[in-house]
Structure formats: C-alpha cells, structure tokens
Specification:
The mean pLDDT is about 95. The longest helix has 14 residues. The chain has a five-stranded parallel sheet, sandwiched between helices. By secondary structure, it is an alpha/beta fold. It has a single domain, classed as 3-Layer(aba) Sandwich (Rossmann fold). The chain is globular, with a radius of gyration of 13 Å.
C-alpha cells in the first residue's frame, strides 16, 4: 500500500505533467495510467487517492471508469477533464459520480488545487 496521491487516466502525459508541476515541492505520488484496468489496480494500491479522468482518452471508457472507481472507492473523488466538444457529457459524468467536470483549458492552479483539496490528509501548504 502506498500513500494517497493523484491517479490520472489519459492517453498522453498532458495532465500528468501539469499536476506534477503543481505538486513539485511536495512528496505526493502522481501515477499516470493508460488503461482503465491500470487505474483500478493503482487505486487499490493507493487508497484515498484522487482520480483524474481525461475523456479524450475515450468518452465511453471514461464514463464507465467513473462508475468503476466509485464502486471500488465509494468515498473517492473523481475529477473529469474534457474538451468543449464533450461538454454534453457533464451531467452523465456527474450522475455516475464525478465530483467535477472541468474544461480542458483548466489552469494548473485550478486542477492542482482541486486535487489537493480532495486528498484525505491534505496540508495547508498544498492549497
């Protein structure tokens, strides 16, 4: 078992890089995953982690993953990032359990801050 961190489902490393920059001065694991199954395995190893799902990695797979994450970790936080073209998926994502649905133009401070606020043992210096 590992300490809580941020688990990211994406096909590229865009959000991984952004979140790592935000937490650069903190001992926090940021674990990228390219497959939904990897997300679930990683969350089992890192209980209390925040999950970031990029819907450009596959909208249908991303929506299913929200449900799977919430079943595995009912109290877990899921943050979805999507382009404007997928904005109509906000309410289905929220119904499946997403805490937030953010545009892909989200800033480092906004996404990183939201992740920090969801960590179970967050520290004031993360916010």
């Amino acid at each position: 078992m590992f300490a809580p961190g941020v688990v990211i489902y994406e096909k590229t490393s865009r959000w991984e890089a952004l979140i790592k920059r935000y937490f650069a001065n903190h001992d926090l694991q940021v674990r990228p995953c390219r497959l939904p199954a990897q997300v679930l395995t990683t969350l089992a190893e890192m209980p209390g982690s925040v999950t970031v799902i990029d819907l450009t990695a596959g909208a249908a797979a991303g929506l299913r993953l929200i449900t799977q994450v919430r079943q595995l970790v009912p109290s877990g936080s899921v943050i979805v990032v999507a382009p404007e073209s997928l904005a109509d998926l906000e309410w289905p994502a929220r119904e499946f359990g997403a805490l937030a649905f953010l545009p892909d133009s989200v800033s480092e401070a906004e996404l990183g801050g939201l992740c920090a606020r969801q960590l179970p043992d967050r520290h004031a210096d993360l916010l």
